[in-house]
Amino acid sequence: MSDHPRVLVIPGYNGSGPDHWQTHWEWARDDCTRVVQHSWHDPEPGAWVGAIAAAVEAAAGTVVIAAHSLGCIAVAHWAAVADTTRVAGALLVAPCDVERVGVPEALARFAPIPRTALPFRSVVVASSNDPYATPARSRCLAEQWGASLVEAGALGHINAASQLGAWPFGQALLDDLIAAGPDPRFARAAALRDAAPWPCSGVSAAVRP
């Protein structure tokens, strides 16, 4: 088993093209593997969750997740039902609010969003002007998932249109997760899967780049 975790790159709706930071990471880093979905344009929750499960199973050892948008929601669904013991952490960038009014049907299929704590160390990265999730909604998701919240500034949906290139700040967050390794305290979180959803009664701790 390798000491260095495999980074599973999980894009969102329509995938991540050549200008997306996820693609840049795959080009620049030898520890990244993309989770390929059967359909990027007609996402089906069960299929997306199954692809994540297969990728984790296929990895040689410990994994760290780097997900974007709808990919973050798929990770939450997967974590609610899967054996997550090999996951050391997850970087969840711009999770898409699939419960918002007017959301496209293809995204609404992923509602409701799981609201129990993720059973591994996690960081939610939010943008102040994300058209797919308000700052308040991003804070709420971070709190419910038991994740740290990073407020990255006005970066839109933190996607190709944001023109981030290889996004050094995001890579620094990823490398911090890798360096931290698995946290044994999160082994208890699996027992919370059937607990009542956490209320959004406060604001998660936030850091800024």
UniProtKB/TrEMBL annotation:
Coiled coil: none annotated. Keywords: Hydrolase. This is Alpha/beta hydrolase. GO terms for molecular function: hydrolase activity. Gene3D superfamilies: alpha/beta hydrolase. It comes from Glacieibacterium frigidum. It comes from the Bacteria.
